[in-house]
Amino acid sequence: SRYETGKRDPKLADLDSLASFFRISIGQLLGEPVPMQIPVLSSVSAGKLWGQDGVYGYEALRHISVSDLPPGDWFALEVQGDSMNRVAPDGSVILVNKSDDLLVDDKFYVFATPDGDSTFKRYRARPERLLPFSFNPDHERIDPQGELHVIGR
Fold this sequence. Notes:
Elements: H1 2-5, H2 12-22, H3 26-29, E1 36-45, E2 50-51, E3 62-66, E4 74-80, E5 93-97, E6 108-112, E7 117-124, E8 129-131, E9 149-152
Parallel strand pairs: 1-4
Antiparallel strand pairs: 1-3, 2-7, 4-5, 6-7, 6-9, 7-8
């Protein structure tokens, strides 16, 4: 109670004992956020639309530890290509919230088409199009042909 009221400063050994007793880290004991383990499932094209086989959670490439994410259904993808290199260079990992699928103008999403193609792009509503966000001027916008499915933001 003296620790909680500020009448006594805890020693590192005391914090370590308390954390061990509660089976948490010292950081968690001091109120730091608990990191989530996010599965890196696959890669996503940052170029033209391309096909991607389905992936199940147990097939994750690896897991990464991330703190301070808002509530959601999270997974991670490795970026392949340079059409989004101003925000996600080739080889970087993006976090995708499957629960956030409401399209908002000028936000970044992973999209899939009914025939299984997928891409990571910036969405623009009027006219509806998917835009690269790249230092490479060769990338062109994608005009959706048919229905686009938002995998997540």
